[in-house]
Every structure is written in C-alpha cells, then in structure tokens.
Amino acid sequence: MTDFARQVALPGFGVEGQAALGRARVLVVGAGGLGSAVIPALAAAGVGSIGVIDDDTVEASNLHRQLAHGVADVGRSKVASVADRVAALSPSTVVTTHDERLTAENALALFADYDLVVDGSDNFPTRYLVNDAAVLSGIPVVWGAVSQYSGQAGVAWAARGPHYRDLFPTPPAPGSVLSCEEGGVMPSTVAVIGSIMTGEVIKIITEVGRPLTGRVCLFDGLRGTFREIAYERDPAAEQITELIDYDLFCGVGLSAQALATMLDQVTLIDVREQWEADLATIPGSRIVPLDEVPASGDLVLFCHHGVRSAHALEVLAARGIRARHLEGGIDAWSRLVDPTVARY
C-alpha cells in the first residue's frame, strides 16, 4: 500500500478503500478524450482491472485532447495505445481491450464482467445503449460529455436513484448538437470533466463521499464556473426491458452502402418534389407528405443531398416519430451504390 500512501491517508479512505479499488472491475466505453483522462487516472489510483472498448484508431487531430496517445500511436488502435499507457504507469493493473464497437448485441455479455461502467462515448446512440444495458445489468454508470468550451458529468444508477433516461427521456434532434469535428473542443474542458468522472468512480467503489446520483455537474470553461442541476426518477417513464435499435431511436443517418443491404427491411420515404422523383428514384420508395408519415416502422427518409431529409427528421421528432435518413441523399446513392440512377 506504500505506493498509495497519499490516498490511504485520506479521511474515511484508508486501507479498506484502497483494497476496494484493487478488487474493482471497471469498463470504460471510449478511449478518446474522456477515456484518455479517466483510464490512466484510474490505473494510477490503483483500480485493479480496467476494460476498454473502442473500435477507433488514433488520428493526429486527436492528440490535442486525447493525452493517453502520442505521435507514435497515430494509426494504431486506441485500445492498444491506451493499454500501453497503463502498462507504463501501473504494471499491476490488468487491462482487457475490446477492439470493437459497443452494440446492443454484445453489451449485456460485456457488462456482466464488470462492476461499474464509465461512459466516455461521443454520440447519443451509445450513451442510451450504455444506460439501458447498465440498468438491465444492475450496475452504475459514470458518464460525461463535452461540447466546445463546456461539459457535464453525472452518475446514472437505477438501483440507487434516477438514470440517464430520467434526465434525457428523448435524444436531441439529429444535427442539433455539434460534434467535436464541427464545433471544436477545448482540451482543458475535456481534462476537467474526465477528472470529475474519475472522482465519481473512486467515490462509488470506496463508498467515500456522495456520488453525483440524481445530479449533473456542469462546467463552463469560458467562465471557469460550475453549477449543479438536480433531477429525479420519472414515475411515468417507460420501463427498460430490452435493448433496442439505438441508431433508429436517435435518428442517426444511414450511409448509402448500409441502406443498400436493408432495402427490403425499411419503409423508404422520398421527401423531394414529384419532378425530382420523375428524374431519379430509389427502388421501393414513395413520396409521402410529412403529415401522413406513419408513426411506426423502420422509416428512412431521403432527399437530393440530405439537407431536407435531416430537417424532416426534426419535424417528425417533434411529433414523437423516430426515423433515419440517407446521408448524402439520392446523390450519394447514385455515386456509391447505383450509378444508373441519374444525377441532377
């Protein structure tokens, strides 16, 4: 325990708290910005077993905020890179790498091997998937999110209080939240939120302090200020009984190639004008006014370049109808799938 003397000396922490960290099994979803802050810190604190799941590779544009990776890691898988970082920092920590994407098909089996999940993902389908899988698995989630100069963190723990769906019952409209690529991100904000998430993991494992259950900590990096929002369990919320199609739930776009493999499984709706459909169309599609779009089924909308269909998703979402749209529109379909479809 001498390596952790400064932790063991903390009031209420002691040898028991350090031993609890050593026994803990923590899964981190995402080895990007937040994962880069959380994973080395957990290893340095003495967490005995850390799993990391991510199917991405390191890019040069990641390095300003993803400090677990270096220039020599560009092109490598993020899970392999962060595993090397942990090995150099804390050789006794067991790191299990999952070089794959978290899906509704693998989440429950994966979560069964861990006591706690850290959600450092950067998209809403994964955030809802992590929450729902954790609810079904009976384990807590420490989550965080960063956008431009601000960030937020919290704990979703259905066994002890509210969870992510109580705070965000429905995902935001597609395109309404900027990605890091579109809006940029302040690296210091990532570090702050990652540090808060690390603290929440340690508090939950050691039972020291009060976790952010039912509360969200918000950080404003431009002003250097914090504030807190409290929320409660929604008694009218639908019970989580199974994992679903989270891309569909969040209205995520489909690539032309992906759509080509599932044409017979979706309802394909054309939101263009009739004269455009007369020029070029996708087999099986039909023009349907938005006020007549069915409220059920696997709906995929398309237009010329994807702009009108993205707007149509927002209109449908306001009516409680979830759908997806074809990224790049019929023009992408012509370029990437069927060149016999006329471009205009």
What does this protein look like?
The protein has about 350 residues and is an alpha/beta fold. It folds into 2 domains: about 1-230, NAD(P)-binding Rossmann-like Domain (Rossmann fold, 3-Layer(aba) Sandwich), CATH 3.40.50.720; about 255-335, Oxidized Rhodanese, domain 1 (3-Layer(aba) Sandwich). Helices cover about 35% and strands about 15% of the residues. Strand 5 (about 140-145) and strand 6 form a beta hairpin. Helix 3 packs parallel to helix 4 (about 80-90) and helix 3 (about 35-45) packs across helix 9 (about 185-205). The mean pLDDT is about 95.
Keywords, please?
Rossmann fold; four-stranded parallel β-sheet; eight-stranded mixed β-sheet; 17% strand; Oxidized Rhodanese, domain 1; alpha/beta; 344 residues; 12 strands; elongated
